[in-house]
Amino acid sequence: MPRKPPIVFPQEQRLLSALGERLRLARKRRKLSNAVVAQRAGISRTTLYKVEAGDAGATLGSYLRVLAVLGLEGDLNQLGADDRVGRKLQDLALEPAPNRRTATRAKTAKSSSASNDEEPT
């Protein structure tokens, strides 16, 4: 019995549909038929239709096979390459947290040394 496709949020569906459309246009620019791309990718034409429709039920492997047939598999390296949020979180975790006791002692030491530097005349 086939599994149910995953729940896909509208924004994610728009992204998948846009990807499928770009793959369909890339196939047409190369003047390749559905049958040829499906055969070269080792998938059925039905699966290719799903990929080009942005179906969330199509496997990532199917998308990758179609990208490879179209010569676009290198584009997969760009996914997640610039992880700004992840790097920022990592940088924040690497910064030492200010220690309140040490900061309080430093302030106390500064104020006491400042009062010792003032000599009565």
UniProtKB/TrEMBL annotation:
<feature type="region of interest" description="Disordered">
    <location>
        <begin position="90"/>
        <end position="121"/>
    </location>
</feature>
<dbReference type="InterPro" id="IPR001387">
    <property type="entry name" value="Cro/C1-type_HTH"/>
</dbReference>
<dbReference type="Pfam" id="PF13560">
    <property type="entry name" value="HTH_31"/>
</dbReference>
<dbReference type="GO" id="GO:0003677">
    <property type="term" value="F:DNA binding"/>
</dbReference>
<feature type="domain" description="HTH cro/C1-type">
    <location>
        <begin position="23"/>
        <end position="79"/>
    </location>
</feature>
<dbReference type="InterPro" id="IPR010982">
    <property type="entry name" value="Lambda_DNA-bd_dom_sf"/>
</dbReference>
<protein>
    <submittedName>
        <fullName>Helix-turn-helix domain-containing protein</fullName>
    </submittedName>
</protein>
